[in-house]
Specification:
single chain; mainly beta; 9% helix
């Protein structure tokens, strides 16, 4: 996927091998197996970078949802 610079900043996308569709994770999460460069670090990057949306783990929001009282169905 191609994103503009503004979209990358809003989504917190970094061009690292951990988010690349050409790389797959090895046993330890610090190394990736790149289709083009072989074994590389997960923080590495190259010109063949292609963002894979499914590899990104979004941060959980800490804001608690407001409690909403539901009406009783007994009436």
């Amino acid at each position: 996927m191609k994103f503009s610079r503004e979209q990358k900043e809003n989504l917190d996308i970094r061009d690292i091998c951990a988010f690349c569709e050409n790389a797959s994770c090895l046993r330890n999460e610090d190394e990736m197996l790149c289709r083009f460069n072989g074994v590389v670090s997960a923080d590495g990057t190259c010109r063949k970078f292609r963002y894979d949306l499914l590899k990104r783990k979004p941060a959980k929001k800490n804001a608690a949802l407001p409690k909403v009282e539901l009406p009783d169905l007994d009436d």
